[in-house]
């Protein structure tokens, strides 16, 4: 599959993220999946917005992040881009759209840039480091993702913590260095014990953004619907809910339904007026003949129906 030429992403935003690490300023990333959350992120002080494939489960109601398609991700990416100016926008390359070959990875990354992203994210290391190299060589910045990598997690499986043994921690370090050397501008560390994450971060030059990796990383990311309080079911231990939007939404729908059934809505404040009495009188004069004409020609009059 070929794609149109893409304009080069603005790499100043990438340097700004590196500068935050150099200044020991904590980096803040959130996910967003729609225009309204993008506007909220824009109005806040977050540094980066990820159009995460967590959209699959949180927004689209799918069983697993493996189920979201590239077209669905690109559609929500374009919506987020329309609402976002300042924060760095990163697109999460979905399962099955980059693993098979460098050419596929570059093609998918270009489509995210066309949709408005400055950078893309890929999960895993090993062969993925090669894909990273190819995408970076094509001029597109890449964020890596190690530890718990949800795309490898079958639907319904519980969140597992990565790096609990010395061997597993060394493997995480090896993967992180592979991705750094492949050219990643930053990494996500997901579900890693804090003591291990903190030790590894000290050995990694690029910014490491944690989710469930304790407070020793260079920054933190949370899934927007988790922090908004919109996620159903059991939420992972690492999630802090900063709002209870679901309760507000249920309340708003319930109040609306009650108002409508009581005929309290719409009141005069929410109703258009401005029709002159003379116009109403003219309408009433015209109606009988118009209704008679309509009835004569329409199926209203069809006694068989
Ligand atoms: O898809 C997502 O939301 C993510 C974050 C958890 C980093 O990958």
Unreliable stretches: none
Instruction: Kindly report the spatial arrangement of strands forming the biggest sheet.
Output: 1-2-3-4-5-6-7-8
| Measured distance between first and last alpha carbons | 53 Å
- Percent of residues in beta strands? 5-15%
Number of β-strand runs? 8
Shape: elongated
| Sequence of secondary-structure elements | HEHEHHEHEHEHEHEEHHH
Compounds present? 3-methyl-2-oxobutanoic acid
Count of alpha and pi helical runs: 11
Q: Characterize the biggest β-sheet.
A: 8 strands, parallel, barrel
Helix content: 40-55%
Counting helices, strands and paired strands, the structural category is alpha/beta
Q: Compute the gyration radius: what is it?
A: 26 Å
Q: What would the average pLDDT be, to the nearest integer?
A: 93
Gist?
The chain is α/β, with parallel strands linked by helices and 305 residues long.
What do you see in this structure?
The chain has about 300 residues and is α/β, with parallel strands linked by helices. Strands 1-2-3-4-5-6-7-8 form an 8-stranded parallel barrel, surrounded by 5 helices. About 40% of the residues are buried. The radius of gyration is 26 Å and the shape is elongated. The chain is about 45% helix and about 10% strand. The chain is built from 11 helices and 8 strands. Helix 5 crosses helix 6. Helix 6 links the parallel strand 4 and strand 5.
């Amino acid at each position: 599959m070929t794609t149109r030429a893409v304009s080069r992403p603005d790499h100043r935003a990438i340097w700004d993220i590196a500068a935050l690490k150099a200044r020991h300023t904590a980096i803040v990333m959130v996910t967003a999946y729609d225009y309204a959350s993008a506007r909220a992120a824009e109005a806040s002080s977050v540094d980066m917005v990820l159009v995460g494939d967590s959209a699959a489960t949180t927004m689209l109601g799918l069983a697993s992040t493996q189920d979201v398609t590239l077209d669905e991700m690109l559609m929500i990416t374009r919506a987020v881009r329309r609402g976002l100016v300042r924060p760095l926008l990163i697109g999460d390359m979905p399962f099955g759209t980059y693993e098979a070959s460098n050419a596929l990875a570059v093609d998918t990354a270009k489509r995210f840039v066309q949709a408005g992203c400055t950078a893309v994210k890929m999960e895993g290391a090993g062969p993925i480091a090669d894909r990273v190299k190819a995408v970076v060589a094509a001029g597109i910045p890449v964020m890596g993702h190690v530890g718990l990598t949800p795309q490898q997690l079958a639907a319904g499986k519980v969140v597992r913590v990565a790096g609990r043994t010395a061997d597993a921690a060394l493997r995480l370090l090896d993967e992180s260095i592979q991705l750094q050397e492949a050219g990643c501008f930053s990494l996500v560390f997901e579900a890693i014990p804090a003591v291990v994450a903190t030790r590894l971060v000290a050995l990694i030059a690029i910014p490491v953004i944690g989710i469930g990796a304790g407070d020793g990383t260079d920054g933190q990311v949370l899934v927007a619907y988790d922090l908004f309080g919109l996620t159903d079911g059991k939420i992972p231990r690492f999630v802090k809910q900063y709002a209870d939007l679901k309760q507000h939404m249920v309340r708003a729908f319930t109040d609306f339904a009650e108002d409508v059934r009581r005929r309290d809505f719409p009141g005069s404040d929410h109703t258009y007026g401005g029709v002159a009495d003379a116009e109403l009188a003219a309408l009433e004069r015209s109606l009988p003949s118009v209704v008679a004409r309509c009835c004569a020609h329409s199926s209203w009059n069809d006694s068989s129906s």
